[in-house]
Amino acid sequence: MKSFKFENKIYEWISKNLLLVGIILATVLSFYFRFIMKEFESGDLQTFLIPWYEKIKTMGGFKALSTQVGNYGIPYQTLIALMTYLPVTSVAAYKILSIIFDYALCILMAVLTHKITGSKLLAGVAYIITVINPVMFMNSSVWGQCDSIFTFFCLLCIYGLVEEKFNLAFIAYGAAFAFKLQAVFILPFVLFYLLYKKKASIINFIWIPVVMTLLSIGGLINGRSITSVFGVYFYQVQEYPMISLNYPSIWIFLMDNRNYGNYPYISPYCMAVAVIALGLLVLWIVKSDFKIDKKKLIYIAFIMSYTTVFFLPSMHERYSYIYIILGLLIVIIDKKTIPAYIGLLMLDLQTYGYYLFALTIMPWIVLSIINLACFIYYCYRFSQYCRISVDNEE
N or C: which terminus of the chain carries fewer CB neighbours within 10 A? Predict the structure, then answer.
């Protein structure tokens, strides 16, 4: 049967705009599977987030900023206080905020990909694979957590450093710290950039407390002290004295997951090993002959954030979020990392499923072995990627 002219025009438009069609389809589907989870309540929502929301609402919304409610910083408490004025449930409020930053993060991934590759096709692909990433979806829409918020600002910081827009980079980093202490996971990369590139100034760090204070203005107006802007993080550091909190770190080889025993004695050693591992990585980069371009900067940011989380104690399963997102950029830069990235996703599906759905997972020692194998492979691929670039330069 012969097709109509309008059908031919539709087919022709689709064939010429396959990338745009893919972006639209991925966006619609991603919104749908986020929408169907709108009423799901994770353990964190039931135990912590919903009671915090109700307390903020009972205290008068914005007036509740006069005191600390929950263990998140003032900026996030401010956003929740503002959400209490809207006709939405507490569960929806948390998820709406995180989902907004989901899509902002996806757009930023596309922008950064275009900057480092110059390819609109790869930028579109970066958006698509980020927006349907299962870890992003489970974190915001299922768990009700806000890791997309601080990660958005971390990625914006990395974008600013890569493009040498230093004020933007440190303003973004200040915003990341204002929302989550876990912004510290890219601090080694930021410090490396300052020391190696010698283009930004240590003075730029002043932006961090300035931005944190500005974003906490709601609390300050309501009588909070300036020390309260930063004090919440001192509490968080001491809140969970366990070697690991459902993250398959290197220390699972030494102590069981969620083990309290001897933590005060072991944790300083773990932190020292993390610093040494990062130091050795920096030493290798500095002593190598390869030229650090934009792609290698992204690779270094990924490797350093992965190293930090893998070797530090007291890591939650969600703390992999930052390097899971950066890992998507590494897949675009170095396609041979696809198997390792799939391994990282499988690890997160296990640990997320363990917490969210009481999934019976593989033994923690097995998960740690897989994580170690992925880490070693990424380090190998990074060295190979840099070696190839040196050969090409010659």
Answer: N
Q: Which helix (H) or strand (E) holds 244?
A: strand 244-245
- Rounded to an integer, what distance in angstroms lies between the CA atom of residue 261 and that of residue 213? 37
pLDDT per residue as tens digits for the range 81-101:
999 999 999 999 999 999 999
Cβ contact 40:142 at 8 Å? yes
CB burial of residue 196 (10 Å; 0-12, 13-18, 19+): middle
Structure tokens at 298: 């992204």
Task: Please state, in angstroms and as integers, the Cα–Cα distance from residue 118 to each residue in 18, 110, 114, 299, following that order.
Answer: 19, 11, 5, 17
**Interacting residues of 214 by C-beta distance below 8 A, sequence separation 6+:** none
| Window from 70-79, 91-100, 195-204, 385-394 with minimum mean pLDDT | 385-394
Amino acid (1-letter code) at residue 86: L
Alpha-carbon distance of 133 to 163, in angstroms, equals: 26
Contact 121, 163 (CB under 8 A): no
Structure tokens at 337: 């990392």
Polymer length of the chain = 394
Give the pairing of strands 315-316 and 244-245.
parallel
199 DSSP 8-state letter? -
- Residue-wise pLDDT tens digits, 44-68: 999 999 999 999 999 999 999 999 8
> Could you state, in order of their start, the residue ranges of all structural domains in the chain?
1-238, 240-394
Dihedral of alpha carbons 100, 102, 106, 111, sign? positive
